[in-house]
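Q: What does the assembled structure look like for these inputs?
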Amino acid sequence: MAPTRRKFLQIAGIAAAGLVFPPLAKVLDSAQRPGTPTTAGLPPSVANTGSPLMAKRWAMVAIAGKCPSGCKDCIDACHRTHNVPDFGNKKDDVHWIGAEKMTHVFPAETHPRMPESIRDLSVPVFCNHCENPPCVRVCPTQATFKRADGIVMMDYHRCIGCRFCMAACPYGSRSMNYRDPRPFIPKTDPAFPTRTKGVVEKCNFCEERLAQGILPACVTACKEKALVFGDLDNPGSDVRRLLNEKYSLRRRADLGTGPQIYYIL
Amino acid sequence: MLEKALKGSRGYGIWVALLLLLTGIGFFFYLRQLDYGLGITGMSRDVSWGLYIAQFTFLVGIAASAVMLVLPYYLHDHKAFGKITILGEFLAVSAVIMCLTFVLVDLGRLDRAMNMILHPSPKSILFWDMVVLNGYLLINIVTGWTVLESDKQGVPPPTWVKPLIYISIPWAISIHTVTAFIYSGLPGRGFWLTAIMAPRFLASAFASGPALLILFCLILKRFTRFDAGEKAIQTLAKIVAYALATSIFFVLVELFTAFYSQIPSHMNHLTYLFRGLEGHNMIANWMGVSAVTAVIALVLLIIPRTRTREPILALACCLVFLSLWIEKGLGLVITGFIPSPLETITDYIPTGPEIAITIGVWALGLLIVTVLYKIFVAVRTEK
Ligand code: SF4
Ligand code: SF4
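A:
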């Protein structure tokens, strides 16, 4: 049942996006495309037509060493794109991308004798779109599910707000709408649905943009090109090239979750 | 039989009215929570489960403890329990109802609760918990009620009840095991990630549940004409003593593993729980009370001279209940979240409305116990 439903939603979503968004997508595209590398590993011709970006296994490489201190460009872009509320307090806080201390993100991989330039890094943290996601396993309604291309998605219309997924995620990637988020969205973008109080939300790897053939908002917003997105299964993709060249880390890979955000320092 | 709950003494009336009032207050604040969202509670992004889920966890234990009456009576023919097994079953009924209420109260979207049934997810432990809890509720309502009904008519219970009662024994173990699995199967929460979680839950349940039953029996003896009998109460007291000792032992075993191995991800939580981290020691203070009361209670329950004196026994049972409530109904759930996966320490302080709702659900449960026990006493003492 469920896979069929998802497949349907996926197709319907893509179809709807195709119907509704082409003009909008084009506008956004023309603004963003010239400098954007075709990180999906797809031929430029395909990636530029506005047809959906597809992959066997989406993944992201974050080159944390490139992040200037205090930079929040990716966070702002993401939160603007997805109507993420800003409650202005820690208790109700909802966020999809965070900026955390290197020593907190990689407690086991850092030590006090490391160069300060590394220890003091501010590292962007996202949902890891785990290969073996505990959040999906524990969800009692399948409101959280994993797509064939690896994106761990949420159905905001099905979530009952039990927050089992928040306890299960070993990365703190999920937020609960403890209050009605709508009054706290700085500027609502009608192109993306808003959520109601009582549901959980998190990064969706910009699946709605991929469906329109655009790279994730954080990737296009980063002036330093610190975020690289693409198909992990495609040996020619930029993510694979980077992983081939440099030593990379994943957050708490020892837990067996198979995180798909790779960090290069 | 229900009509028997309707008439009672003045004291009974006042007690019921009080519970209704507390339930009403809880309901009022729940309506406010529905309106405002769960932000009305002290829960946060970091500490995403609080008092509600902790009460749920604690009460599953109370529910499971009915087996401590059923098992000795039906499997070992411990006659003294014959008079009170129904009390255990009725306590289980009310405890499970409280559990389910706490889960519902904790949902962000109550209106979608049915999604758990419409989209069953066998990989989710919460799904199985729902299955076993509802099953357990049904078993206990049916067995308790049927046996009492036959009692009233002075006939032996129908033969089909027996198998159901036997099933209730492993079923009771299952509800608490499955509840422990909610926690112990999560990667990255070092505090909960321990195989001893289920045994620990059971041990503490078999102490707190029977302790509560003893208190109820003593109350019934004092205020009604029903006497559970010295022998039954003393056997229960011994069960509490052994279970409490086991529970303390299990906690010590946990402490050893964490503090001797010195793996930070396991140790930090326990340090927070018992000593506090970076000046955050509210829970640690509570846990101090829990530890002291547990030890005092254990001593009082082990020494025969104190255990057999009713007022002291009552005190010991209160201490057991308090100690294990702090441990499970407060510390166990919250500490799993502190420190957070990103190493931050976020305190959790329940808010007024949250506490009012919690008390409301407890009052509802006590109301159910009161009514069921009233019927029980009426049937038993009228003959
Ligand atoms: S990072 Fe957390 S929320 Fe994202 S897929 Fe992994 S477990 Fe789920
Ligand atoms: S809060 Fe929503 S997404 Fe998370 S486990 Fe519960 S139903 Fe699933």
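Chain B has a mean pLDDT of 94.
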